[in-house]
Amino acid sequence: xxxxxxxxxxxxxxxxxxxxxxxxxxxxxxxxxxxxxxxxxxxxxxxxxxxxxxxxxxxxxxxxxxxxxxxxxxxxxxxxxxxxxxxxxxxxxxxxxxxxxxxxxxxxxxxxxxxxxxxxxxxxxxxxxxxxxxxxxxxxxxxxxxxxxxxxxxxxxxxxxxxxxxxxxxxxxxxxxxxxxxxxxxxxxxxxxxxxxxxxxxxxxxxxxxxxxxxxxxxxxxxxxxxxxxxxxxxxxxxxxxxxxxxxxxxxxxxxxxxxxxxxxxxxxxxxxxxxxxxxxxxx
Length: 284
Hints:
The chain is mainly β. The chain has two domains: 3-152, no CATH class; 175-283, Cyclophilin, CATH 2.40.100.10. Helices cover 7% and strands 30% of the residues.
């Protein structure tokens, strides 16, 4: 089942994502890939794809695409109203699509990023073995725009034996678990307790690179800056102003701000769904 889909409207921001480019940090290339990796994997499973097939990551909905042939799609991540040829669709489930059908995603009521998978995968040319758009390094396909035509591949597995994958809703105030960071000694002894003592608000200066947070100031005991050192997804870097930045999928591979704590890998999918103005809490 192959064909193409045409982007009619990309919404506020939409990119092609897969599971990224692991193992290239020594060359200065970050992993990138889907911000909410669990949602990408689920979307692919629902249409019978390998989990690492490329999909569309839509930020705050608004995406509209038209298919040239028969297809099967699934939408996961931030739950939103779905229209297929003017009919209501449903999230977290496979949806059949006919030639000429338009699939539209409304803005989600909660959460930030939705994932549209199509059986066979989005078959754009890979860059460094991946089809992911890295917005920081400017690698991979460009962000989607009206008129972009995307080929559909034929990399599939057997159809799944389920027609719905219920998922819990995204909480209003997510709790992200952390472990102490490698530069905790750069901060006063109460810094980690301060981090977990009160909620932090997600600021508008947030994107796929990282989330800037506004909360209790984390005070340093050492001045100056570190030489650049390796960074990982989930790192909470703290600039001199004392407000942490939570690194997401497109984070730089090195940084010079001390890392007070690191969000656990299992909670990064939840972190990828928080919106500007929303509050998060941290827990040890």
